[in-house]
């Protein structure tokens, strides 16, 4: 072989190798996940160990609605987080797969990716992956009811399924064991992070697409103003006061006692619903719960951590009064005088018209699109079998 | 031939010298645990007599706990770390930190609720050869391993029963006593659970990691006189509840689930030596 030909051959080999490598790279590198963020929504934080991908979100969506993921095969995540109710369940307190009643109500999952802490009152739960161990494995109260005794069997229901077999491999490329509890949890977390939406009348108003009604307009001014003071705890872009996103300032997550109870005048809340106090035992945390996002609040009744406030009107009434008075029974007490109550919860002078205006504004925060968005819907329901 | 013989003897000698340090330096260590109530053995399905301030009979429902940072004490008072054996269902070493799950329930009888058939009574490992007169260990999982993702970590840290998920950690102890009469029994609260775990934890929303816990609740145990070769460690459930009435729940969780304000935690914390001297663990003959 002449040296020129040899050189040419070497060059050709290099070019070929480069092409092969590049083809391989573009085939195996997952397409970057494309967030569909509403106007004004910042880029979400995503844990390094669980990057978003369309394949993973698709797997997570199916798992979210798959009843086989509960110990006795009766419940899915979607059983207590129903899309048409903004991923709540309409109950005062959630009911687990074995019928055990949870002390607290199921919370909305829309825009959950922006929440600093998860669940009603827990400064320790700051990732969806870790939070999910609670509903899956908790024994008190039982939610999904996965135990050491049935976890292998539950996992087998998923590993044996052909749809999952094919899709998990795509969602976790290069993984030796694509289907495991870890990848199940990561997939569901990815689906939950994808639940970003803000297309309410209020959002359209901000974009100049619609006009608010006079009542909604007055309600908004009350909400944002210093008379009703709602915005102190519900002032973020998702209408709460605990948000995290790329570049968000480091702040201690806030929890508030809003004067719902005051057992025997001691400031106590009924067990096991004493808020952050349950974990910290610090008196200042008595009755301290998270201010939930008020987006879609009109479809998430009943309200508060224990569902003890039935309607939006009653919720507004509660805050207008600066707390709740319970005349008799085991929970009797004047919540307005709770010594641990957040100082921001004070009596507000609101006329009946003002209250109606506030309710009108709160109703303008409902995003109808997200309640039926196909991307977030139950894939089992389309086959008429029902995923729940 | 003579030469050859001598040189191979020399080679053998060198080989022996080379191998000797490893062989002679370490000795096997087995620290064995057994469950008792006073001087009586404790087992699933056998009622335990005379527990608590009201001397009540009780059933065992669970008896598991994590042990870490195990050290043997020399006569000179020096604490020498025990290096755990190979990873197994009950033993794991990660990043130089070793944890053993002691499991003294067998999932039968009164322990069928969420017990497991397998048992493990021993912390197994090696320590430099020597004479040891005492032992020290921590009940619980060190912070670096405690707040790890349970399903993603190897056994025994992946146990669902031992998960303390709302604090993003593990239950350090899962020792559970119940009314021997069941639902028809006479206890006002039907169960007395002793779940020690780190409490008051907070996380960093930006990273998703647990940052700190205000109450670590990891009892540090020290047996001044303990000979691992001839003795075992008794876990005394009677001593554990000596300061509590096991039949009532004065507030918070039934029994003690680590809340400082739980009235039943005062006696339990004292027994584990979280305040004062521990009384739960003692050396007894094998």
From TrEMBL, chain A:
<feature type="binding site" description="covalent">
    <location>
        <position position="80"/>
    </location>
    <ligand>
        <name>heme c 1</name>
    </ligand>
</feature>
<feature type="binding site" description="covalent">
    <location>
        <position position="230"/>
    </location>
    <ligand>
        <name>heme c 2</name>
    </ligand>
</feature>
<keyword id="KW-0560">Oxidoreductase</keyword>
<keyword id="KW-0574">Periplasm</keyword>
<feature type="binding site" description="axial binding residue">
    <location>
        <position position="234"/>
    </location>
    <ligand>
        <name>heme c 2</name>
    </ligand>
</feature>
<dbReference type="InterPro" id="IPR023929">
    <property type="entry name" value="MbnH-like"/>
</dbReference>
<dbReference type="GO" id="GO:0009055">
    <property type="term" value="F:electron transfer activity"/>
</dbReference>
<keyword id="KW-0479">Metal-binding</keyword>
<feature type="binding site" description="covalent">
    <location>
        <position position="233"/>
    </location>
    <ligand>
        <name>heme c 2</name>
    </ligand>
</feature>
<dbReference type="Pfam" id="PF03150">
    <property type="entry name" value="CCP_MauG"/>
</dbReference>
<dbReference type="InterPro" id="IPR051395">
    <property type="entry name" value="Cytochrome_c_Peroxidase/MauG"/>
</dbReference>
<feature type="signal peptide">
    <location>
        <begin position="1"/>
        <end position="17"/>
    </location>
</feature>
<dbReference type="InterPro" id="IPR009056">
    <property type="entry name" value="Cyt_c-like_dom"/>
</dbReference>
<feature type="domain" description="Cytochrome c">
    <location>
        <begin position="214"/>
        <end position="366"/>
    </location>
</feature>
<keyword id="KW-0408">Iron</keyword>
<dbReference type="InterPro" id="IPR026259">
    <property type="entry name" value="MauG/Cytc_peroxidase"/>
</dbReference>
<dbReference type="InterPro" id="IPR004852">
    <property type="entry name" value="Di-haem_cyt_c_peroxidsae"/>
</dbReference>
<dbReference type="GO" id="GO:0020037">
    <property type="term" value="F:heme binding"/>
</dbReference>
<dbReference type="GO" id="GO:0046872">
    <property type="term" value="F:metal ion binding"/>
</dbReference>
<feature type="binding site" description="axial binding residue">
    <location>
        <position position="81"/>
    </location>
    <ligand>
        <name>heme c 1</name>
    </ligand>
</feature>
<dbReference type="Pfam" id="PF21419">
    <property type="entry name" value="RoxA-like_Cyt-c"/>
</dbReference>
<dbReference type="InterPro" id="IPR036909">
    <property type="entry name" value="Cyt_c-like_dom_sf"/>
</dbReference>
TrEMBL record, chain B:
<dbReference type="InterPro" id="IPR023977">
    <property type="entry name" value="MbnP-like"/>
</dbReference>
<dbReference type="InterPro" id="IPR046863">
    <property type="entry name" value="MbnP-like_dom"/>
</dbReference>
<feature type="domain" description="Copper-binding protein MbnP-like">
    <location>
        <begin position="27"/>
        <end position="258"/>
    </location>
</feature>
<feature type="signal peptide">
    <location>
        <begin position="1"/>
        <end position="24"/>
    </location>
</feature>
<protein>
    <submittedName>
        <fullName>Methanobactin biosynthesis cassette protein MbnP</fullName>
    </submittedName>
</protein>
<keyword id="KW-0732">Signal</keyword>
<dbReference type="Pfam" id="PF20243">
    <property type="entry name" value="MbnP"/>
</dbReference>
């Amino acid at each position: 072989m002449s040296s020129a030909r040899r050189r040419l051959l070497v060059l050709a080999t290099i070019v070929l190798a480069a092409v092969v490598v590049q083809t391989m790279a573009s085939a195996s590198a997952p397409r970057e996940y494309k967030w569909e963020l509403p106007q004004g929504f910042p880029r979400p934080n995503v844990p390094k160990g669980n990057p978003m991908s369309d394949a993973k979100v698709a797997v997570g969506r199916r798992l979210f609605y798959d009843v086989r993921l509960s110990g006795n095969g009766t419940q899915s995540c979607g059983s207590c987080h129903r899309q048409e109710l903004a991923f709540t369940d309409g109950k005062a307190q959630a009911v687990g797969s074995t019928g055990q009643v949870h002390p607290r109500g199921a919370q909305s999952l829309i825009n959950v990716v922006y929440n600093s802490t998860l669940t009603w009152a827990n400064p320790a739960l700051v990732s969806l992956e870790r939070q999910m161990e609670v509903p899956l494995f908790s024994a008190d109260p039982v939610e999904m009811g996965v135990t050491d005794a049935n976890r292998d069997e539950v996992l087998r229901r998923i590993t044996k399924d052909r749809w999952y077999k094919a899709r998990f491999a795509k969602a976790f490329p290069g993984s030796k064991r694509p289907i495991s509890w870890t990848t199940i949890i990561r997939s569901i977390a990815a689906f939950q992070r994808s639940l970003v939406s803000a297309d309410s009348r209020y959002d359209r108003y901000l974009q100049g697409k619609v006009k608010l009604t006079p009542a909604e307009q007055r309600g908004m001014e009350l909400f944002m103003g210093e008379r009703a003071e709602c915005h102190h705890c519900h002032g973020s872009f998702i209408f709460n006061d605990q948000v995290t996103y790329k570049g968000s300032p480091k702040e201690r997550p806030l929890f508030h006692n809003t004067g719902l109870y005051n057992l025997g005048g001691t400031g106590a809340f009924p067990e096991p619903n004493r808020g952050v106090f349950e974990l910290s035992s610090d008196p200042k945390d008595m009755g301290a719960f998270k201010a939930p996002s008020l987006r879609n609040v009109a479809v998430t009744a009943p309200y508060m951590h224990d569902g003890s406030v039935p309607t939006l009107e009653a919720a507004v009434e509660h805050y207008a009064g600066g707390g709740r008075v319970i005349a008799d029974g085991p929970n009797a007490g004047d919540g307005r005088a709770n010594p641990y109550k957040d100082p921001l919860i004070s009596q507000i002078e609101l006329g009946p018209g003002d209250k109606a205006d506030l309710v009108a504004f709160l109703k303008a925060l409902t995003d109808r699109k997200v309640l039926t968005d196909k991307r977030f819907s139950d894939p089992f329901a389309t086959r008429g079998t029902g995923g729940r | 031939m003579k030469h050859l013989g001598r040189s191979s003897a020399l080679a053998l000698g060198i080989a022996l010298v080379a191998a000797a340090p490893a062989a002679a330096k370490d000795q096997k260590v087995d620290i064995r645990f057994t469950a008792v109530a006073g001087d009586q053995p404790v087992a699933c399905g056998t009622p335990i007599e005379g527990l608590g301030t009201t001397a009540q009979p009780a059933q065992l429902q669970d008896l598991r706990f994590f042990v870490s940072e195990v050290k043997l004490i020399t006569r000179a008072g020096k604490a020498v770390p025990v290096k755990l054996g190979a990873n197994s269902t009950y033993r794991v070493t990660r990043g130089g930190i070793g944890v053993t799950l002691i499991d003294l329930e067998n999932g039968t009888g009164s322990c069928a609720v969420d017990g497991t058939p397998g048992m493990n009574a021993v912390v197994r490992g090696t320590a430099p050869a020597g004479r040891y007169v005492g032992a020290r260990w921590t009940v619980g999982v060190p912070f670096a391993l405690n707040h790890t993702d349970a399903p993603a970590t190897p056994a025994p840290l992946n146990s669902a029963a031992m998960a303390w998920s709302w604090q993003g950690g593990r239950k350090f102890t899962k020792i559970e006593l119940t009314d021997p009469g069941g639902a028809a029994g006479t206890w006002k609260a039907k169960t007395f659970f002793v779940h020690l775990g780190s409490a008051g934890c907070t996380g960093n929303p930006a990273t998703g990691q647990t940052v700190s816990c205000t109450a670590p609740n990891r009892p540090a145990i020290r047996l001044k006189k303990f000979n691992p070769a001839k003795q075992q460690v008794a876990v005394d459930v009677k001593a554990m509840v000596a300061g509590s009435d096991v039949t009532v729940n004065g507030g918070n969780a039934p029994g003690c689930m680590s809340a400082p304000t739980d009235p039943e935690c005062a006696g339990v914390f004292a027994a584990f030596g979280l305040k004062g001297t521990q009384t739960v663990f003692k050396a007894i003959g094998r």
